[in-house]
Specification:
CATH architecture of the largest domain: Roll
Number of helices: 5
Keywords: Membrane, Transmembrane, Transmembrane helix
Strand content: 25-35%
Organism: Candidatus Woesebacteria bacterium RIFCSPLOWO2_01_FULL_44_14
Structural class: alpha+beta
Number of domains: 2
CATH class of the largest domain: Mainly Beta
Strand order of the largest sheet: 1-2-3-4
Number of strands: 7
Order of helices and strands: HEHHEEEEEEHH
Largest sheet: 4 strands, antiparallel
Protein name: DUF5673 domain-containing protein
Length: about 180
Amino acid sequence: MPDQAAQQREPASPNAGRGKQEAEKTLVEWTAPARPFKRRDRDFYITVVAIAGIFGLILFLVEGFLPVILIISLVFLFYVLSTVEPEKISYTITTRGIKIAARRTDWGVMGRFWFTKRFDSQLLVIETAVFPGRLEVVVDPNQKTQIQKAVEKYLTHEEVPASGLDRVANWLGSRLPGNK
């Protein structure tokens, strides 16, 4: 069955190696937040600061002051990302790739894709051959089927099972207040 899906997909660049290239056409376009976002309550931040304080104390006793500075900076970054709402940006799926805020990622560097949910946001996740290895796009739920049909022309729809690190992170995240 995967062979049939691979045969039905269009090549990443249909005119590769030829003199004239096809004009880029927009397949689907939508506007959504730049990243998934969820407001956190006071209990959540108290728990995070308490856990960071315990780890900071342990690392201070073992390694000194520099790891404590790292933990403080990571907690501050997490706080800022959890309190500042992301801006809305435009996403476009074209015949040449996916544009996120006018920056295009070509189909040639992308692998399989799947959909997932984080907080209250629907995400399109695409494996890439470039750093960081995944492209996560916030999807408008009303256009999910259009987006899936457009991406299936170029990529294989195959969900990747959660890794051990993903399972541990999900388990720890479910134990924090406000993540039920």
